[in-house]
Amino acid sequence: MEKPENEMTNQRRDFLKNAALGVAAAACGSAVCSCGKKEEKESGEKVVLLSPDGELVTIDSSHLRQVHKTVGVSREEARHGIPGRKFVMVIDLARCKNARKCVSACQKMHHLPEEKEWLQVRLMKDSPEAPPYWFPKTCFHCDNPPCVKVCPVDATFKRQDGLVLIDTERCIGCKFCMAACPYSTRVFNWSEPEQSAEVACLTYSPETSVPSKVGTVEKCDFCPDMARQGELPDCVTACPNGVFYFGDENEDVVTNGDETVRFSDIIKDRGGYRFAEELGTEPRVWYLPPKDRLFPVERGLEGLPDDIRNRYKDVLGE
Amino acid sequence: MTNRIIPFSYWTNIRLRILGIGLTVICYITCFSTMMSQDSLSTETNQLFKSKITLSANQLQEGSIELNSLLRVKVDNVYQGISNAKITFYNVKSDGEEKALGEKITAPNGKASLIFKAADLAADADGYFSFLARFDGNEKLTAGENDLRIHPAKLTIEPIEADSTYTIKIMATADSPEGPKPIADATVGLYVKRMFSSLKVGEGTTDEEGTVEIDFPNNLPGDADANVVITALIEESEDYGSLAASVTKPWGKSVANIETELPRALWSPHPPTWMVVTFFILMGTVWGNYLIIVYKLFRIRFKKDNTHARA
Amino acid sequence: MMKISAAGNQVLKTFAPQMERTTLREKAWIAFLLCVIGVGIYALYLQITVGHTVTGMRDNVVWGIYIANFIFFIGISYAGAVISGFLHLLKIEWRKPIIRIAELITVIATIIGPLFILLCVGRLDRLHHLVLYARLQSPITWDVLAISTYLAGGVIFLYLASIKDFAIYRDSTDLHLSKWKRRVFKFLALNYHDTPSQERGIHVSMNLMALMIIPLAVIVHSVLSWIFGMTLRPGWHSTIFGPYFVLAAIYSGTGVLIIALYIFRLRYKLEAFILDKHFTYLGYIMLVLAAGYGYFTFSEYLTDWYGSEKWTGQLLKKLFSWNEYGGLFLFTNIAGIILPIFVVAVPALRKPKYLAMVSALMVLAMWVKRYLIVVPTLETPLLPIEDIRPEYIKYSITWVEWALTFSGIALFLLLFTIASKFMTLIPVSEISEMAEENIQTKES
């Protein structure tokens, strides 16, 4: 009772300060926890970085925020598309050796767990006598997309620039689009997706498809956020053999990063075709037949982990 | 002032303090553990890495020069770009004096580039410019530098249009005190700028006069106004670095199929008209009938009926 | 006071104990049903909190038994819609004792069916998007519209056919109802006092509804089949899928009606009202439908098999092979087509007991058939499945899905039980002279 009043207030202020700090810390912690899904696995790939205080550090590339950045496009713009573009992809089957760099790049950039493949490399064998070949398969972004037709809520939509995207904040998860897609392109989040707290807290855009949301459908998006920055999709740049060509059909040009060719020329000269044309879906992805291959098909099996190799058992007749 | 405010009792004070301290400790632990668990940065220790820097130049139109540097380090036998490093570019005078042109921070791929006007650069006796790109190094990385000597030169580009055939005339000249000197025997590539990269549409070699004419294809799509950006380029010549010049001409084909509004279709947000009409007819008929029946039920409920119950 | 025939009085007397109080046995029965539903609610809780990973559905087989149940329940809802609508329009007298049960099946099954499609939805919290962002091009939107319209129609139809009864319950002095129940009936009976104009109103409305409920039912099941028919998948992408589903639905609806009549006849001793000839007539209807359904089945698979397109061939191989779905496929054809025809065709077997038994078998076969439509097709994508996770290759039903399926059935029975507390299962007002004669012959 004898204590002067100002000392009292000081104490109170201290207390409040401490409490506030504690609360802040707790809030911080809980923020991490609330978004904190399962921790992301290390990719094993290292990146050299010079920190601002002059330290040279190697860090696991999965920790680098090479997240697909939201480029600040509004939801309407994301639904409308990049003006004047008509994206097209050409996949050169003669060059693919199942290096799977496209798959891992795609997974890294979209923060997908290992078992979730938006981009698959399949081993195809068209008939018992036909030779097997590697077949990388993205979303075909069809011009007559069966998935978009059946969506009851306009969650998956066709854009003016040719892309078929999904708004997972609108998707109700009826999975009708998955049943309708003849190419097994789409994947569903059957449980809470595996992604780090940092990723889970990112602002979602249909153009980045990050973060994943439980109970919704997702798929390959052709990385439109990269295109807005004039950069190629991640699978294109990651491929060591230049299998993927990407470009704007309106400009009649596709590039795999190294070579730039006219789209109409490469399709004409190399006998380009679209997969399962008879379905009438009009894919925006073209294939160049596996003629004069760079690698024998067996090269694609070298060094594969067992679980991935086992996928091809049926085709190889093992 | 009346002693109305009852101060905290001694024990309350202690308790509050303990609470405060406790919260502080929790705060520190939380922060610390967050820091520890954050991106497990592994700092390489006791080893000085050897950095490697390369430098190239690109002479642009209107006397601009672009210097490009690439800073890399070899980790596990693979070169990797170093991001976030400071690169200083210099113009080296003939007396050895270094004049700083500017500083740039490397991008994630290790690249940094600087564009500046060539006008106020000092040339040496032979008319060459000397450049230097330097990375100062730090406790983990060795310093590194690379120099480059180029002779000022330029490409001039002249579009020629005759009977709907398009030709690009290019003249390559080196600057000299006596005036422009033609560069002969240089390979010039002709490119068109596209969204992600440039498409090569032609190639030629300069003659004695330093000129070359390259045909431009007339079936190339341009933008909405048929414009194409055409670039002539001599790549990585020993004396001049890269030389580039661009021009924009309406030589392309205007792309007609740029859609702004999606058509009425099964796959668009706008349903086909017949579908909307059918929907309204079907729904209107059925629900209209429902309404009639509900109206009849209302009449049974509320209409006074004199003939109460049949005999 | 409403006029009641002697037979009507008899009916009222039969069902009065049921409506007046709930016996211990019935309470136990309701408790049992609630337990089954409780397990289902727990399963649903898991499915919502943990995610759909607790079901057997995965990226290839995106729909499982939920959607099979959905088609099944909408299918049996045809019992009332078509049978009573059709028989009403043709003014067939013998329909009168059975229409109430048929209409109850319609309404209750139409309530339960859509619950199963909701179970397929990954984000139940966004269900309002179906209205907010509705796309008219999607068969799901068609379904939402068609089923809600159909349900409204079924409710109106059932209500119109019950108003006279409600008025009777309201006025009856023999019925010792609790106060609140009588008040409910007073409300439900509107102001109905059997005046000629009121009766004409009801009559005209009934005709209108009977006329509408048939095309509505056809549209609903066609639309439902188009969820499958509109996709580019073998076994689904078929032009006869609409009529095929419609026919299968009426067929299974008739089967369920026969079973229900048999059970209620046994339970409430309704031999005076539900006669053997009802079973015989329904048996004839079933025979015709079985033949039609068999014809559609044959036509569908013959066409697919004869054309032998590669993708379709892969599906048929699974349906015809013993290691895969051969056994089930054979079962659906024997129990779903051949047996019912045989039992109805042989006069010695055309007895309520055998008809009820073969109907039960047939209804089960029809459920299996729906499973065979949904699952094998989804297990056969255009690009062969390249996955080594067994649950992604082959669908297997988890306990969660079974629990929810059984709670669906339990809910069906529970709603029926509740309904039997509020109305006589045979309409008092409609009961005909035919039944009256029957009572007299029995009593004498």
From TrEMBL, chain A:
- Report the GO molecular function annotations: 4 iron, 4 sulfur cluster binding; metal ion binding
Q: Which UniProt keywords apply?
A: 4Fe-4S, Iron, Iron-sulfur, Metal-binding
4Fe-4S ferredoxin-type domain location is 130-161, 162-191
What PANTHER family does its record include?
PROTEIN NRFC, PROTEIN NRFC HOMOLOG
Name by which UniProt lists this protein: 4Fe-4S dicluster domain-containing protein
Organism from which the protein derives:
Candidatus Opimibacter skivensis
Source organism lineage?
Bacteria, Pseudomonadati, Bacteroidota, Saprospiria, Saprospirales
Automatic annotation (TrEMBL), chain B:
The keyword Transmembrane is annotated on this UniProt entry: yes
Give the transmembrane ranges: 16-36, 274-298
Q: What keywords is this UniProt entry annotated with?
A: Membrane, Transmembrane, Transmembrane helix
Record's protein name: Uncharacterized protein
- Organism expressing this protein natively: Candidatus Opimibacter skivensis
TrEMBL record, chain C:
Question: Which keywords appear in this protein's UniProt record, sorted alphabetically?
Answer: Cell membrane, Membrane, Transmembrane, Transmembrane helix
InterPro entries, per database record? NrfD-like (IPR005614)
Q: Which domain of life is it from?
A: Bacteria
**Signal peptide range:** none
How does it sit in the bilayer? Multi-pass membrane protein
The compartments listed are: Cell membrane
Task: From the record, give the transmembrane residue ranges.
Answer: 28-45, 65-89, 101-124, 144-161, 208-229, 241-266, 278-296, 325-347, 354-372, 392-416
Offer a single GO CC term for the protein.
Answer: plasma membrane
Which family is this protein grouped under? Belongs to the NrfD family.
Task: Check the record and name the PANTHER family matching this protein.
Answer: POLYSULPHIDE REDUCTASE NRFD, PTHR43044
Protein name, per record: Polysulfide reductase NrfD
